[in-house]
Amino acid sequence: MKNTVLKATVAAIVGLSMASVANAALISGGIGLSGNYTPVDSLGAPSGGNLLNADGFDIGNAIVSTTSGDFSAEGLSFGDTVNHNDFYFNPPNTPVAPLWTTTTGTTGDFSFDLNTLYVDVQTATQVNLSGMGILHHPSFEDTKGTWTFTANSLGQGTFTWSSSNAVPEPSILALIGLGMLGFVGSRRLRKA
Q1: How many whole angstroms separate alpha carbon 8 and alpha carbon 53?
Q2: How many beta carbons lie within 10 A of that of residue 57, not counting itself?
Q3: Alpha-carbon gap, residue 106 to 130, rounded angstroms
Q4: Hey, which of 29, 37, 97, 174 would disulfide with 57, CB 3.0 to 4.6 Å?
């Protein structure tokens, strides 16, 4: 009986370790986008140079400006084109799926769905927005992350995405498994 319990415990630990290795990893790193836009009112008409009158943004051309982590590894670099959808922030019109999609990934395109949106600053010359959402890529697990948007009255701005997900490495899972195995073994020796 004791031998069967020990074998079952070892099999469960090995199975859990293998399952975590088989899953795709979360996306790590960050991407910065830049481009031009037109501030619009609630009806979609240009709101002029005063950003206090803006309720949303019609995004013009957007490009990749910075990359790190998996974004760099997937071949994205400065100047790559990004399809960025228009959106409203007053009131927030979420979710926006996708908010943006890259067009030049090595193994597929990244796309970001904006799920929440907050107005952090809105003055006559500046709008700062932030939010949370999910980043997608065919080679990775869907990954939660943060989004920021900074706009000025000149119609130029930056948009960023980043994630700080900590994923346990398979070696950590193996150490946990060995610890459990040692615990079971010590209990078995104490009873014998």
Answers
A1: 65
A2: 26
A3: 28
A4: 37
